[in-house]
Amino acid sequence: MIRPLLLSLCIATLLVACANHEKPPAESGDSVRDSMPMAFVAPDTSTIPVGKVGDMIRYGRELIVNTPLYLGPKGSVGKYAGNLLACTSCHLDAGTRPYGLSLISSHARYPQYRMREARILSLGERVNNCIERPLNGRPIPMDSKEMNAILMYMKWLAKGIPVDGRVPGDDLMKMPLLDRAADPAKGKLVYDQHCVRCHGDDGQGILAAEGTKYTYPPLWGPNSYQPGSSMHRLIKAAQFIKYNMPQDLARWDKPVLTDEEAYDVAAYVNDDELHTRPPVPPEAPNYPIAKERPIDFYLGPFADPFSSKQHKFGPYKEIFAWRKQHGHPTGY
C-alpha cells in the first residue's frame, strides 16, 4: 500500500513536471490553456488538524482573509497595515485560487532571490514586503504570533510540494505580449463596462457594512497599493485581471476579457497621470540593479535603450527581444 505522504509527493512531482514543460507564451504566442490545462487543487480546510498546530494554521488563514481587522489601522492585534486592504485582496480565496496570485507553493520556494531588493529574502520578509507596499504599512515582528501563524498557514498549503517545487496555478497565467502599447483611453471603456459595479466610478471600491474592510478593494487613490507593488506593473496586472476579473464571472479557464482588454484596463488603472497613489518611502528598494528591472517596471535608469513610457505601457516585444539578444533578464 502506498503511504499517503508518498502518494502526495508523487502527485506533486507529476504536477511540477507538467508545469515545467509549459511553452513560453510570450515567444510562441500559443494559448497557455493549451499547454497547461490543469490547476493544482488546494487542500480543504476540513483537513486542518485539531490542536495547537491547527489553531495556528486557522489563525493564519484568518489573518490572510481579514487582515485589516487584526493588523489594519484600527487592528485588534496591532496597527501594521496602513490601509484596509487584506492579503486576499490580491491573493484570492485566501491564497488558494489557481492563477489568482496563489500562495500554494510559496513555503516550498523560499528563501529566494528577489530582484526588487537584489538580495535573498526569507518568506517572512516577503510577507512583510506585502504589508509594507500594497498595504502601505510597517513590518510585522518576525517573532510574533501573527507572523508565525501566517507562515504556518502557508506551510500547510504547501504540504506535499517538494522544496523549490512549482505546481500549475501557483503563478499568474502568462499572456502573449501585444504588438502595440496598452491604451488607457480604451481601458476606461473596459473599466466602465466590467469594473465599475464593484470598484466604483472613482476606483475607490466598496467598504463592507461595518466599515473595517473592503468587499471590493480600491484600485487607486490614497487607500490603494503603492507604486512599485507588483500590481502596479502593467503585464502583472493584465495577467491577474484577464484570468480573475470580473471576480464573480471569470476564472482561469473561462476568462471574460480579451488579452487587449486586459492590457488596456490595466493601463487605465495604473496610469499615474490619471490616478494618484500613496507615495513610496524613499528608503524602499526598487530594483537597484538596472538590468534586473522587469520589462514593465517604468522607473529608470534602465540598462536598455527604451523609454520610461515604453516600459510603462509597451509595446514590449522589442524590449523583450533586445534583452534576450544582450543576455539581460527578460522577466516580467
- Helix fraction, binned, reads 25-40%
Per CATH, what is the topology of the domain at 4-29 and 45-157? Answer: Cytochrome Bc1 Complex, Chain D, domain 2
Q: Specify the CATH homologous superfamily of the domain at 4-29 and 45-157.
A: Cytochrome c-like domain
Give the CA-CA distance, first to last residue.
Answer: 44 Å
Low-confidence stretches: 1-34
CATH class division of the domain at 4-29 and 45-157: Mainly Alpha
Mean pLDDT: 90
Tally of strands = 4
Largest sheet descriptor: 2 strands, antiparallel
Oligomer: single chain
Strand content: under 5%
Determine Rg (CA atoms, Å): 20 Å
From N to C, what is the helix and strand string?
A: HHHHHHHEEHHHHEEHHHH
Number of helices: 15
Shape: globular
CATH architecture of the domain at 4-29 and 45-157: Orthogonal Bundle
Q: Which strand order do you get reading across the main beta sheet?
A: 1-2
Structural class: mainly alpha
